[in-house]
Amino acid sequence: MKLLVNIARVFVGILFIFSGLVKANDPLGLSFKMQEFFEVWASNSSLTSTMHLLSDFALPFSIIMITLEVIVGIGLLLGLWKKFFTWLLLLLIIFFSFLTGYAALSGKISTCGCFGDCIPLTSMQSFLKDLVLLALIILIFFGRKHIVPILKPVINFFVFLVSGILVLVFQWYVMRHLPIVDCLPYKIGNNILELRKMPADAVPDKKDYKFIYQKNGEKHEFTVKDLPDSSWEFVSREDFIVQKGKNNEPPVKDFYLTTLSGNDSTSAILGVDAEYYLFFVKDVSLETDSWLSNFTSLYKLAKNKNRAIYIISPQAVEADQFFNQQNNYGIPVFNLDATAFKTAARTYPELYLLKGPVIENKWSWADLKKALK
Fold first, then answer.
1. Is the dihedral of CA 360, 347, 64, 161 positive or negative?
2. What CATH number has the domain spanning 252-371?
């Protein structure tokens, strides 16, 4: 029993630390996944206001959850405060199992973000993983008497404290300077136009239809093969998926750069055989002093190098007012869908250097000075 408990302890501890660190590389990504859960639950009218409130705090929740995962794993490996950490571990895995179980069984959420975007798992894969972990954690919980601290209490606590601080600092760093490992489709070297295409091995969904007709005030459903005669009145048609396809979504979805008047200019911009900048700005009503002077320097550099700059924002009208009416830059502003914007930009603002459709480099707002070199 002692051997089994300690093998399970080491395995679970390492897995929790690994899972937490993978997500710590991109805390915003986890916050977006949390918002997805909140939006699904908000469809229940009795929970709408609560879920919208929780959605506003998704990023703090994300940071807390990531930090908890890492420090629980470290505490388990160190054998520190075994009663406290085994209880916390059990509560966490029950909570995670509920989330992944809901996602898998409801079919409303395709991925759970358990290992971030770097190791994508389907909802069912995540749920099965959590069930295995639940069994191991129950073994650890009831066998915690076999857990022995590996270091002296003072050293154990020091290692635990430093680890917790480091994971918080790491999250602060990547939110300021971009993720260390870029696992998103918009990483350096990728061709955006190519990634907008359907994968070559895509298998489309198999669909079928049912038709609703009525006669003498009564409605009936019919399949394509047994449609009624002309004495029936057509009411509606419903499509449904018979069999889900595989790999039938392009890596880059909804990346459409539209003008203020609604014209799609994506191909016109990305198809130019020259270097240019895309400057992603989410909300210009927020603090701009931290990046505006560097942006002005970038604007002058772009003019000297004959590079175009385009402003990309989910709030294009407000961005146009800020850059062109208030500050007289005279820069083209394009609208981008809010969901696509979240994937493309992990800091606000963020700068891309492209040549045609290929991303040559990218910088966070905190690193704009590096783009001037």
1. positive
2. 3.40.30.10
